[in-house]
Sequence to fold (1255 residues):
Amino acid sequence: MKLIRLALHVCLFSGLCFAAAPAPEAAKPGEELARLADVSGRYGGHLTIGQRSEPKTLNPVTATDAVSREVIGRLMGDLIEINRASQLTEPALAKSWNISADGRTFTLQLRKGVRFSDGYPFDADDVIFSFNVYMDAAVDSPQRDLLIIDGKPIAVTKLDQYTVRFVLPRPYAAAERLFDGLAILPKHLLEKPYHEGHFAQAWPLNVSAAEIAGLGPFRLKQYVPGQRVVLERNPYYWKVDRENQRLPYLDELVFLFVGTEDAQVMRFEAGETDIVSRLSSENYNLLAHEQSRTGSQLADMGPGLEYNFLLFNLNDLGGKKLDEVAVKQAWFRDLKFRQAINVAVDRQSIVRLVYGSRGAALWGNVGPGNKLWVNQALPHPSQSVETARQLLKSAGYSWNATGQLHDSTGRPVEFSIITSSSNSQRMKMATLLQDDLSRLGMQVHVVPLEFRAMIDRVFQSFDYDAAIMGLGGGDADPNPEMNVWTFNGTSHLWHMGETQPTTGWERELDQLMQQQMVTLDYAKRKQFYDRAQQLIADNLPFIFLGTPNILAGANSRVGNFHPAVLDPYTLWNADELYVRGPLMENAGVR
Amino acid sequence: MRAKVTVLIVMLVGLHGVLLLAGFFAPYDPAAQNRELSYAPPTRLHFKDALEFHLRPFVYASAVVMEGDQRGSYQEGRSREYQVRLFVTGASYKLLGVHESTTHLFGVSEPARIFLFGTDAYGRDEFSRVLFGGQISVAAGIVATVITLFAGSVVGIIAGYYGGWVDELLMGVNELFLSLPWLYFLLGVRAFLPLHLSTLRTFFLLTGVIGLIGWARPARLVRGVVLSSRNRSYVLAGRGFGATDFYLSRRHILPEVFGLLLTQAALLVPRYIAAEVTLSFFGLGVNEPVASWGNMLSTLQQYSVLVSYGWLLAPACALVVTSVLYSSLAELFHSRLKSS
Amino acid sequence: MNYILRRLLRAMLLLVGVSALCFLFTEMAPGSFFDEMRLNPQISPETIAALRSSYGLDQPLAVRYARWVNAALRADLGYSIAYNAPVAPLLWSRAKNTLLLTTCALAITWLISVPLGVWAASRRGGLVDRAVTLASSFVISVPELVIAVGLLALVVRWRILPVGGMMSADSDALSMLAKLKDVARHLALPAFILILCETSIIVRHVRASVLEVLGATYVQAARGLGMSQSRLLFRHVLPVAANPAISLLGFSLAGLLSGSLIVEVVCGWPGLGPLILEATLSRDLYLVIGGIMFSALFMIGGNFVADMMLIVVDPRIRKEGVDAR
Fold:
């Protein structure tokens, strides 16, 4: 009897939990909504997305992993957004902004009448609070470094309830792009943990839905450990469609934690999830093969922004007991040696065998996917073993009877390439490279290492000869690349922790990067950056290999599916996605 | 019964002979890439063309047919037949590590290729790779098994035979080994080793690591059996007559655990061959371009590979064959032992 | 009583040893949780250093270990870096799911493999025997991971079962019974894989040990004296043959938390496996160590049960007792 009552109770309780999603609120007078004139769809239904791992936190200030950010991005709103389709900035919570002539002062007009997902009104105090949190050294936010320019924080002041001014310590090109990804936090909910000094612990995954609110299209409904996060419509969201209907269309957005990339594909193939992104070409082809049966929408968006490259260890090894590596550095420092390798690489094979022809070969750090910034004038020399041999010969290398390459002191040329064992594409590149370079008489060993063990060698111990890695993928603008190309940058991989540029071209590169950062005119910046790309391609600190296309897929039911080459590839317009055809209430259960 | 034994022995000798003389039996160099022929399906052997039936099989040259700008499937060019020939000259190899030779058992003339098990992502002949890979993998599997079983039975016998605090101590260490985070250990080990490891060193490393981690389970199993057999009347009697511990354990206790060890051996050999899949994730496996069954199997973990390129299951099949042969051998051994 | 005390002491020492070695291993392994941030060019090394020190990772090993032991004695296993949350509740919420999967699989495995092994042994060389031997050789030879991915691929094609997870996304709306059915459908595949892989090992051992005893002189003598096959099997053979099987059962119990890692990862089962694997690869130290300690407890328990059973079941050990010497 007791058991029956318990069961009844559970049923009742769970019934309550599944209360319908909140209906969108009617527009209030004076509410300044953002109208998307070319968007239409219809209300209802839910979409399911498979994630490779479980998000770790819902705290937008401390989250660093891509999976957490994918969820948090749907919950939170920014002042200015980068439209992923056009790659340009767009007004968001700031309905407009103006920049002073010296490029240092930004004055933002906030949207009036906007409410957080719990109905609490939003104004300049929330903005001031958010930026205080981001810039507080005690919070250790990873975004903090973006907002500290030349060691000085950006000054944020409230002019009135809906106007905020940002003053930068010096001119900063495309500074408005910084606002994308800096979520505006609800002061009324987070002030207390912030003042009590445990902000980093706020908003863990198991936070109750009542304690978290944001300005994004969705709000938290439920988290089931190890299984899923369910988001529901934010009824107060500040965007409307063509017919002035308040977005988002979807009642719910469900994130399932499926574990691996393959699981993502299998779940999608089985119809248990609706959208899949960051597909490998093998999996894309697999889905394309099934397309006639499943009718799913597959999108090949062309090359993305990631660049994969071969990196030689040119670090200063003084003080580290790495004599073996130090000897080999004589080769790696030789530009002709690097040039020889550059022309010996069969990039077409990489595109064909690694990316299944869904990718592009690279000769510089900016790929064809970045249309605004790529230097079209860079030469694309095709593979030539002959040229490579001549280069080596002119640099004093020679071959012995068995065809092995020796340097001028008679040492056989033999080195290892490390790469992450969990990245099968880079492992393949290494194996192809090994074969390419064996034709020059070089003996190359491929050493797969676990990801963090490899990173440790590249960033800390410098105990490696060469590595295959990838960078980029965030924003199209050159500014995020600063830390790679300036001599004291944190990702200046080939020579970490330099105190001053060691060579002339590095000095020039450094100056160019600094100049483009403080120049506001696009055409001028482009000139600087073109020259920088030229320098990089001429001096080959990295030997660029290729970039994969951005591949994504969606169930035939998904409307307004417009993947982009910028992260987040598919969910950037989650507020516009809708469900076509009959609304299945029990999707997933067959 | 006798015929069965003969068949088994012939098959075992055959298997190891082929693996040992892989260079001769394999038509190609296992590391040679054919980038135009990646993921080519197994080459079909034909006996019949449009006109007549041939006793000597022949093949057609295959090439990729493009579908738009994307790769389509492979198709045979029927215009010319290439006969499969015996004792052809091809890539050079070292037979048994000493004799340099270029003669291969079979082959076809270029541009046709004979890929009995298809090719992998780089267009390398899967058949040749299975043969060469078997050299390392089968040896590593057997050596590692011998190490673990030896260590395991020594510990197990001592613990079971003496019992008491010796047992307590050894089984405590045993449990410690069974519960440690070995993945972290592997990461640590890798960090202390030089970056490039020769294949020979990798071999010792594989067997050593597996032996270190693997002895604990067999030791517990052996100890259980020894606990029981040390109280048998003849053991007790032997002890009464002043037999030494060593004599007793060799004469009476070892035979008791022998069956168990054989069963374990049949289970462990394939396990340990496949264990390289995990170890190679941590950079402790056999490195490209050298073939091993372990690094070949690791590509099978990918869903797209498993579903689209079924022929890459070849190393798994080879492993099954090896394992069946070895467990039959263990079985045979066991029944001989009992009846004698 | 003496024996129980000794076991307890051993368990305590073991936990100390495991935790100490855990710390040592994690210290030895290169890389840290914050390494991934190094790849993000927008995060400065100072921020990373500050984060490290806020988790106490800049302290020497001995200090960290002392702190951890001190906290662990108060049932506090530390803080997960990734989840920014205490370890113990995190582990427990996943351990429940793992236990659901593994206990089901364990029960069925043993229910199948013992009778099957005995049957195969009692009709040695027969059809059943050969089929069992061949099938188990097959399963043993193919890595578990490949079996799991392969079966999952079949399920995707045939659409007979859900492709992973533990319940459907909308299972909250279902009735109790439907909910149970839902979980059972999700459980079927991972459990099947586990059962397949485990059975192939245990059946071999059961078969071999029964054969061993059947070949012994006293059994042959009994048979010669005309004792019926079934009476012989159940009265004299099975109790003796149970020995290695019991040790194996100990392993099975010990592996209740840790034995299903691969299957859980491949099938997306929300258990300890994916959590610990991810924590290991991301160097989320305290989460890993907590998980290892959890599994070590099961190891101790499983082996203790096995030892007790050995004493109870095996007539020869019982005669003298483990404590005899």
